[in-house]
Amino acid sequence: MPMTTAEKLFESIAVLPIMDTHEHVPLRQQNRELPCDVLTEFLSHYFDKDLLSAGMPRNILDHARNPELPIADRFRALSPWWDLCRHTGYGRSLDLSARGVYGIEKITGDTIEELNARFQAGVENPHHYRHVLKDLCHIDRSIVDCPGYRLRADDYDAQLFLLVKRLDPYLSRFGQVNDMVAYTGIEISDFDSFLAAVTRDIQNFRENGYVGFKLGVAYERPLHFARVEKAVARELFSGALKAIQTGQPYQAPLALQDYILHHCLSVISTLDTFIQVHTGYQEGNGNMVAHSDPLLLNNLFLEYPQIQFDLFHIGYPYVAQVGVLAKLFANVSVDFAWANIISPTAAENALCEYLDLVPRNKILAFGGDYLFVDGIYGHQLMARRMVSRALARKVDGGQMDEDEALATAKLLLHDNALNRLGLSL
Ligand SMILES: [Zn+2]
Fold this sequence. Notes:
It is built from 19 helices and eight strands. It is of the alpha/beta class. It folds into two domains: 90 residues; 293 residues, Metal-dependent hydrolases (TIM Barrel, Alpha-Beta Barrel), CATH 3.20.20.
């Protein structure tokens, strides 16, 4: 049987170097949660949510994640649900990782013990990260959304990772405020000193090698950030100040968050950098999906033309909305982080739609978005296949030839991330 266009393109696309726009992996493999085994890691996010969505009782998940118990028993208890979810994007990604990283064809009750033995050998191997990310995935760099406050260059392998700083802790809860005071040397006694500390802190991160910023608050609030009078925000800050001084848990009112976010963006707009924004579907088993509508961000793109906004997750299910924003604004790009495993079919259709709609230098086709390194393997393979299939549709439709398709793949999987985000390696 002759090769399809997608298969032909995939032969070249399979080995292209990739820029990975988004990960959550611990920066050092020694920092992974221990003790661990293949089930505790593979069920640390994403696929476990599909299992619960399918109706699996929570106690079976807790049992499955206990590395002290025999793995065959734990797998047996959840295998009916695993089989129901195996063909979702999350499920397929894990099977591909088991095959590509460990040489196990499929995760089943018959293979789980051997898979775990090979996984444990990886845990012992100090070069496992490099092996997966460089040798298997051909990833140039992965941009990590890093939870730690500040990292020195020797805290991680700069040949593997670039870092972005989350803005979320500046807006509410203020969980990193003590670090901020320590690193900026600015005591917080009122609203103005708080804003001065935030300014200095953001500048510090940028000066210390962080390549950009990330906003993940669509998990807990709508993405519309109104313009709020400073006097109103100052008044609201009195509650925050009390919480900061006493260390009490605190959730800032939306108007205060809005003011602080605009303050952060006014600082970032002077730093020649980008912000990655979570839009669309939220990981988990319950949330307000409409909070994540990317159209709610519209005013920010108008107000901060100096900032490059990289809209994550193709806004799924708001795929067309993200496309329209990326077309309308020179400072907005569309990013497939996470999207290929949410739905490979939706991602393929979205790429075809975006190639019609958006200049091809503004589409970033891969961000693994995994907490554990093995997951990145399955996801990058799905992304390469997705790009091959979508471009094959363009070739077969007579809209581009194979050379143009391969040149486009290189932009989507590598060059656009460097150029749009202003990265130099
Ligand atoms: Zn993420």
